[in-house]
Amino acid sequence: MNLIRALAILILAALAVPTAFAQTYPSKPLKIIVSTSAGGVTDLAARILGAHITARTGQPVVIDNRPGASGNIAMDAVAKAAPDGATLGVANTGNIVINPALMRHMPYDPLADLVPVGPIGTVPLFLVANSNLPAATLADFIRYARRILTR
């Protein structure tokens, strides 16, 4: 009889505890903060990503362009956003890798305050110069720059 009474108490206790159900992610609209102005490659990548997320989840995605300070304004906003997964950041390499090497005081620490989720694309870059510059190749340009800098 004591066993039946103990089981009954356990069952009643289990029924009295509110049950928590996991929510599906995302359960609210997302924001993607972009470190460049609208219209560039980084912005375009964020908009394509946002459209893909909306198509897969049904949740709207707001693109929030915050250019300036070499991307620090945007990445600082991402770093200080609530850690609920509703704010993402899209940045280029300079914002995360180069800025800490060039700037003494940054409003955030890329290694401590941000978590890399993954790359969303690569963009080829080209070195270009005025056509009147006496350099046709990268090696020519390096020789020319050294000559100018050592004057």
β-strand amount: 5-15%
Major sheet: arrangement of strands: 2-1-3
Shape call: elongated
CATH superfamily of the domain at 30-113: Bordetella uptake gene, domain 1
Low-confidence stretches: none
The CATH architecture of the domain at 30-113 comes to 3-Layer(aba) Sandwich
CATH-defined topology of the domain at 30-113: D-Maltodextrin-Binding Protein, domain 2
Rounded to an integer, what's the Rg over CA atoms?
26 Å
Number of helices: 6
What is the top-level CATH class of the domain at 30-113?
Alpha Beta
Taking all residues together, what is the mean pLDDT? Answer: 86
Fraction of helical residues: 40-55%
Computed structural class: mainly alpha
Q: What's the number of extended β-strand segments?
A: 3
Instruction: Give, in order, the helices and strands.
Output: HEHEHEHHH
Observed structural traits:
151 residues; mainly alpha; D-Maltodextrin-Binding Protein, domain 2; three-stranded parallel beta sheet; 6 helices; 3 strands; elongated
